[in-house]
């Protein structure tokens, strides 16, 4: 045990011992290298992608064999028609309703999003904040309701957790590429449609897959608890579905050849393709996917406010500005979808 500082002589002796040991190990290594067969620079590849580890929570859904019946279109059940806009900020002690009053009292809007849907809601690593089309729309709701677009608290949700969070009032709204369906409209309220996407297919460059017919016998990735799962089963019942927790998981499994394709809304696929130039969207546009903002079914006053915000950003050019900032990869549009209101 050393009880005082090392001297220059001590350091010199220690360095000599280290050099001697290094030389000894080098000689031993040389002898062993001469006797052993050198390893391959690149390990041999065996097996196929099914042997790789998939993201936690992934489910493999085997081919259904028979295409399920198509669900009722949201236009047939009235799901696309929402409440007419009310005042931007409800006035008077009784008019806001309990849930809107809670938002005004806490002075911030709690918004359910994710951080893995590129172009819509994703974390920008350069500034460590959430960005995207849906994030910008949510901030406009906060501007109209609370007077400041910064008064937003974002809570990260998986696709499977969105509706429970709304029903339990853990979030005020969900802005998360949320497709309006008849089944979903039984659980939550929706705003008017603020964007229309179309179901398509994403593959790696050079893939033999050019459309839904080529998905037979292939593994197709989709996020769990989304309409994309049943859409894939309808358009190609002979496909195996790789159901993952989030859309960025689909990007990973496609890059690692754990799936042959991803199939969902072209808006989401464009965000995946923007992160990897070797990927491409193929095939014709399939089913239309109307996006709405999800709101607790009892929070009528907040539906008024959200629809008021959507009406304003359609009219004043804000919607177009957001589209031009984030979504030009989807191609030119004539403008935002026209709203449909319940009489």
TrEMBL record:
<dbReference type="InterPro" id="IPR051455">
    <property type="entry name" value="Bact_solute-bind_prot3"/>
</dbReference>
<dbReference type="InterPro" id="IPR001638">
    <property type="entry name" value="Solute-binding_3/MltF_N"/>
</dbReference>
<dbReference type="GO" id="GO:0006865">
    <property type="term" value="P:amino acid transport"/>
</dbReference>
<dbReference type="GO" id="GO:0005576">
    <property type="term" value="C:extracellular region"/>
</dbReference>
<feature type="domain" description="Solute-binding protein family 3/N-terminal">
    <location>
        <begin position="108"/>
        <end position="330"/>
    </location>
</feature>
<dbReference type="Pfam" id="PF00497">
    <property type="entry name" value="SBP_bac_3"/>
</dbReference>
<keyword id="KW-0813">Transport</keyword>
<protein>
    <submittedName>
        <fullName>Glutamine ABC transporter, periplasmic glutamine-binding protein</fullName>
    </submittedName>
</protein>
<dbReference type="GO" id="GO:0030288">
    <property type="term" value="C:outer membrane-bounded periplasmic space"/>
</dbReference>
<comment type="similarity">
    <text>Belongs to the bacterial solute-binding protein 3 family.</text>
</comment>
<keyword id="KW-0732">Signal</keyword>
């Amino acid at each position: 045990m050393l009880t005082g500082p090392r001297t220059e002589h001590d350091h010199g002796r220690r360095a000599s011992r280290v050099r001697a040991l290094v030389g000894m190990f080098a000689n031993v290594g040389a002898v062993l290298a001469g006797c052993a067969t050198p390893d391959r620079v690149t390990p041999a590849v065996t097996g196929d992608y099914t042997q790789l580890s998939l993201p936690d929570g992934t489910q493999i859904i085997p081919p259904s064999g028979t295409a399920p019946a198509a669900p009722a279109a949201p236009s047939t059940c009235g799901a696309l028609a929402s409440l007419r806009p009310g005042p931007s900020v409800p006035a008077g002690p009784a008019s806001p309703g309990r849930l809107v009053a809670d938002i005004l009292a806490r002075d911030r809007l709690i918004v359910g999003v994710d951080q893995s849907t590129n172009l819509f809601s994703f974390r920008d690593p350069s500034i460590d904040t959430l960005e995207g089309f849906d994030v910008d729309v949510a901030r406009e709701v906060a501007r109209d309701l609370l007077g400041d677009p910064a008064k937003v608290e974002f809570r990260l949700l998986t696709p499977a957790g969105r509706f429970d969070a709304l029903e339990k009032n853990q979030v005020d709204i969900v802005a998360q590429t949320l497709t309006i369906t008849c089944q979903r409209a039984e659980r939550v309220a929706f705003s008017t449609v603020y964007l229309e996407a179309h179901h398509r297919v994403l593959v790696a460059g050079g893939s033999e897959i050019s459309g839904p017919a080529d998905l037979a016998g292939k593994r197709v990735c989709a996020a769990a608890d989304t309409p994309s799962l049943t859409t894939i089963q309808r358009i190609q019942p002979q496909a195996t579905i790789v159901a993952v927790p989030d859309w960025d998981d689909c990007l990973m499994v496609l890059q690692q050849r754990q799936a042959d394709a991803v199939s969902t809304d072209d808006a989401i696929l464009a965000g995946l393709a923007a992160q990897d130039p070797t990927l491409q969207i193929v095939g014709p546009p399939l089913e239309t996917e109307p996006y709405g903002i999800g709101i607790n079914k009892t929070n009528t006053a907040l539906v008024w406010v959200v629809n008021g915000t959507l009406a304003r950003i359609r009219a004043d050019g804000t919607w177009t500005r957001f589209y031009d900032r984030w979504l030009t990869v989807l191609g030119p549009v004539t403008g935002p979808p026209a709203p449909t209101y319940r009489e």
